[in-house]
Design goal:
single chain; 4-stranded mixed beta sheet; 10 strands; alpha+beta
Length: about 240
């Protein structure tokens, strides 16, 4: 009698496999009694092989890491206090109060200065015997709106040098087709770029209005050829 009862239970489990019966949870499937288990299935109790339900994708995958915004750039100068005065007078940089500990709390730390309220900063390090003067020659680009850019252009020359050391002039404007830019430096040779992406407005209200002949690094026809080839939208 016991043998018959066991056999009937086996037949019942086989008949109800995969239908949410006989203790099988919704979403699980079972293999028949005596059958070889499929790959990846587990056996939580005798006479029952269960395929685990997959976890949702959001629970098993991590989002890709993203570096975030640019925070600051290290700049070496011979005299940090003198450099801070020059950057304030010519480019509108101010010390960031929240970071004064780095400049005043110990020797060799940076003075953080910013022209956009602390969102992006320059970290001014004073050159020393152990940290010789090394100019930042690859260039760091800053962006402003059209009004600020045109006001800057019309203030030239104003004591800001070019990357070659000569006084920066209004006609040193560079046409990059998608933006306008001035390439400049501080008195110690650290290089920067000031640009604006309000291209059409600056062209009409500054370049054409003031008769500026901007410099170019490639032929002007290349942009039109690129847009014709790839169907790229024109810039604003």
């Amino acid at each position: 009698m016991a043998h018959l009862r066991s056999r009937l239970l086996q037949l019942y489990h086989s008949a109800t496999a995969g239908h949410g019966l006989a203790g099988v949870r919704p979403g699980e499937r079972t293999a028949g009694v005596g059958a070889a288990p499929p790959t990846g299935w587990v056996r939580p109790r005798p006479n029952k092989w269960v395929r685990p339900r997959p976890y949702p994708r959001a629970m098993t995958e991590r989002p890709p890491f993203r570096m975030g915004r640019l925070d600051h750039v290290h700049v070496r100068v011979p005299d940090r206090a003198e450099a801070a005065r020059w950057y304030a007078e010519h480019l509108g940089f101010e010390p960031v109060e929240e970071h004064t500990f780095w400049a005043e709390g110990f020797a060799g730390g940076p003075l953080q200065i910013s022209a956009d309220g602390g969102r992006t900063t320059l970290a001014l390090f004073e050159a020393s015997e152990g940290h010789p003067m090394v100019r930042q020659e690859t260039g760091v680009a800053f962006c402003v709106d059209a009004d600020a850019f045109m006001a800057f252009a019309r203030s030239l020359p104003n004591g800001i040098p070019t990357v070659d050391g000569t006084p920066l002039q209004r006609d040193d404007l560079v046409d990059f087709d998608l933006c306008w830019a001035y390439e400049l430096a501080d008195p110690w040779g650290n290089r920067y770029e000031l640009n604006t992406y309000e291209y059409e407005r600056v062209r009409s209200q500054l370049v054409e209005a003031d008769g500026i002949m901007p410099r170019r690094f490639w032929p002007s026809e290349l942009l039109a050829e690129y847009r014709d080839r790839d169907g790229a939208a024109p810039s604003g």
